[in-house]
Amino acid sequence: MKKTALLELHYLPPIQYVSKLLQYPKVILEQHENYSKGSFRNRCHLASSTGLLRLSIPLAGGKNQQQPIREVELKYDEPWQNQHWTAIKSAYGKSPFFEHYEHRFLPIFKKRYKYLWDWNWDLLQLILDIIFLDKEMELTEKFEKDTCDKVIDLRNRISPKKNKKMEDTGFNQVKYVQVFEAENGFLPNLSILDLIFCVGPEAIIYLERSVVKV
After folding, report:
1. How many domains does the chain have?
2. Could you tell me how far CA 137 lies from the centroid of its own chain?
3. What is the pLDDT of residues 42-61, one digit of tens each?
4. In this structure, what are the phi and psi dihedrals at residue 26, rounded to the nearest 5 degrees?
């Protein structure tokens, strides 16, 4: 198996994405790509009482297709941070560990960020700290369409679009008890928030068990 993975930066990334940080000893984040719409870069999936809940971050200037990712700005015409946090609290307020972690996320949701990259980066660092995953990640020095033989290119392979999702033999999600499982059944590969709020400190254990050695 290749030991280095190249990924883009997601917003409250799905469980499959975080499992890659465990699966590969070395992870490189792409910071020189152009923004691509219809991805997890500015959206995430949660569970609600009515089923799958999709949250999307508004961006200044519209979709920002093909704009350098580090230059994509957030839009504040509407209080989307408050709206997203309200939706998260509504979905997970009664979960076993929401009250335990709520105070960790609130400062980020109350801070006004200019760039999408910085917002996603701070959330990812917080998530890694919460799940006790000590992972140093490198950033790309320039954009390269193709990777060397030692690096597996996972950019745009973990996607909300069915036609872009990769067949992932290295990931087999272990089920856990979800808040609205009685209403919706088990919803796979939601945002890592779902796993954190539902199982708390055991999140890293579920991640480890979901990684398949190939």
Report:
1. 1
2. 15
3. 999 999 999 999 999 999 97
4. -130, 135
- Mean pLDDT over all residues of the chain? 94
Name all contacts of 177-186 with Cβ < 8 Å and 24+ positions apart.
Answer: 178/47, 179/47, 179/91, 179/92, 179/94, 179/95, 180/47, 180/48, 180/49, 180/91, 183/49, 183/50, 183/51, 184/47, 184/51, 184/52
Residue 28: how many other CB atoms lie within 10 Å: 19
Distance CA 188, CA 182 (A): 14
* Residue in 57, 123, 129, 60 with CA at minimum distance from that of residue 87: 57
The predicted structure's pLDDT at residue 206: 98
Q: Tokens for 151, please give them.
A: 């690096």
Question: Which tokens in the block code for residue 139?
Answer: 């950033």
Task: With both helix axes pointing from N to C terminus, report the angle between 80-92 and 192-199 in degrees, rounded to the nearest 10.
Answer: 40
Range of the domain at 195: 4-210
The DSSP 8-state label assigned to residue 202 in this structure reads G
The pair of three-digit structure tokens given for residue 47, joined into one six-digit string: 């569970």
- Among 94, 89, 90, 49, residue whose Cα is nearest residue 187: 49
